[in-house]
């Protein structure tokens, strides 16, 4: 007979976790001799583990999610009140928080008008892919069905999303992949494929997309899905000249531009959405993580009215509407939490803080690069920053992934949680990733980068 778990007994909790929980993105063999880490409480920018140790969270919940920080009672209260009133009804019907948040959201996204609710970033991207594919059948005889994606970008964990992802190590052992997803070159100037720099490099990287379209046949390419800033592939802001040329190419060949804002959305880059830094006008925008800062599960696939209108046809035709459902897109907690999350960002000036603190992160990392030759490149946008580590700055030989992870582990020992590219791009899992909550202060930033300084001094000695 299994006895009820005593939540006040840390050893019992650890053993229950060890015996029954299948954790994400981690090999469990070490747990036979090492305890799994269990986080029990969070407040502001800090979290505490089950042993009572305090940590500064430099990655917003580990996966770029808790944008407004921990312990926000007003969000929890809004969710509680909504759940008591109406917790769920299938998305074929409407709800008050669903209508209110959709209205508030598109007000932040000029040119966009329709919100399709789901419950994860992967699912939101699946919706966008299905829209592009169905439009190919409705408008182009099924031929314009190919979807382009970029090397190093990541769009989710389902088989179709992995098929649209440019991180080979995430795809290994899950093939065969879904057909008609086609890669285009990355745009990381530090790892330039052409002997160009600045705007010339940016335009050339965009021109490479046109070359793929022409190779595949413009009449077969229906969509292009890109992150505004590549996230897990190395924190890669686009070079100047890149995005305007991408927009031009999409319009030239009637290719729907789908922007994956799952990481960058809702303030992470210092604007409501990452694409808004670059003056582009997408057709489809997906988002998830920061939409409700992790206080409830929610994702959105947002489209222009023009895309929406393509699905409004003769109601007597049983196949012409968007035949899709997300069960938990009908949960009302998500939009209720998202409304409060958005209000907090506005009321506390967190977009402005993100810009200022992001500049501080970059300045601190650049100062560290003067001290530590293993920092080959510093890059970022807002509170989404990276430092690429190299074994040799002259040759740009990537630092061994094990040593990069050792830097992360050293910071953890210091009570500072940072991230790194992790088993994604073969040979290039060498970038430290920083994405603290948007509430971060100058002292918080200095503590995070100070921990990196100490870790580099020890690990690379």
UniProtKB/TrEMBL annotation:
Pfam families: Aminotran_3 (PF00202). Its cofactor is pyridoxal 5'-phosphate. Keywords: Aminotransferase, Pyridoxal phosphate, Pyruvate, Transferase. One of its GO terms (molecular function) is pyridoxal phosphate binding. InterPro entries: Aminotrans_3, Aminotrans_3_PPA_site, PyrdxlP-dep_Trfase, PyrdxlP-dep_Trfase_major, PyrdxlP-dep_Trfase_small. It comes from the Bacteria. The keyword Transferase applies. CDD domains: OAT_like. The keyword Nucleotide-binding does not apply. Signal peptide: none annotated. Belongs to the class-III pyridoxal-phosphate-dependent aminotransferase family. This is Taurine-pyruvate aminotransferase.
């Amino acid at each position: 007979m299994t006895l009820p778990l005593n939540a006040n007994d840390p050893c019992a909790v650890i053993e229950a976790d060890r015996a029954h929980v299948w954790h994400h993105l981690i090999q469990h063999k070490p747990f036979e001799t090492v305890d799994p880490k269990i986080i029990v409480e969070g407040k502001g920018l800090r979290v505490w583990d089950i042993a009572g140790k305090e940590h500064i969270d430099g990655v917003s919940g580990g996966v770029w999610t808790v944008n407004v920080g921990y312990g926000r009672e007003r969000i929890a209260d809004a969710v509680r009140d909504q759940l008591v009133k109406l917790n769920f009804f299938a998305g074929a019907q409407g709800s008050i928080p669903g209508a209110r948040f959709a209205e508030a959201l598109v007000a932040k996204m000029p040119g966009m008008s329709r919100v399709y609710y789901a419950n994860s970033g992967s699912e939101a991207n699946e919706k966008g892919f299905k829209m592009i594919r169905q439009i190919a059948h409705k408008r182009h005889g099924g031929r314009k069905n190919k979807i382009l994606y970029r090397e190093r970008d990541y769009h989710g964990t389902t088989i179709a999303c992995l098929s649209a992802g440019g991180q080979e190590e995430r795809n290994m052992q899950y093939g065969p992949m879904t057909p008609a997803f086609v890669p285009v070159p990355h745009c990381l100037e530090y790892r330039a494929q052409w002997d160009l720099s600045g705007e010339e490099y940016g335009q050339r990287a965009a021109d490479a997309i046109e070359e793929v379209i022409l190779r595949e046949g413009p009449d077969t390419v229906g969509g292009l899905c890109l992150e505004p800033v590549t996230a897990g592939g190395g924190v890669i802001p686009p070079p100047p000249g890149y995005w305007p040329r991408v927009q031009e190419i999409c319009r030239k060949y009637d290719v729907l531009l789908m922007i994956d804002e799952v990481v960058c959305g809702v303030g992470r880059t210092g604007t409501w959405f990452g694409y808004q830094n670059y003056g582009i006008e997408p057709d489809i925008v997906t988002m998830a993580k920061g939409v409700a800062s992790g206080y409830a599960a929610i994702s959105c696939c947002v489209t222009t009215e023009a895309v929406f209108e393509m699905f409004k046809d003769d109601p007597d035709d049983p196949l012409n509407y968007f035949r899709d459902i997300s069960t938990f897109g009908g949960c009302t907690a998500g939009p209720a939490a998202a409304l409060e999350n958005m209000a907090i960002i506005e009321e506390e000036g967190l977009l402005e803080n993100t810009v200022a603190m992001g500049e501080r992160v970059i300045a601190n990392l650049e100062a560290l690069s003067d001290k530590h030759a293993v920092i080959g490149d510093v890059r970022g946008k807002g509170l989404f920053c990276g430092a690429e580590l190299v074994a040799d700055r002259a040759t740009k030989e990537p630092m061994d992934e094990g040593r990069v992870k050792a830097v992360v582990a050293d910071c953890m020992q210091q009570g500072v949680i940072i991230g790194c590219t992790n088993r994604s791009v073969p040979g290039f899992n060498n970038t430290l990733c920083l994405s603290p909550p948007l509430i971060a202060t100058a002292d918080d930033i200095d503590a995070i980068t100070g921990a990196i300084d100490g870790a580099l001094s020890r690990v690379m000695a």
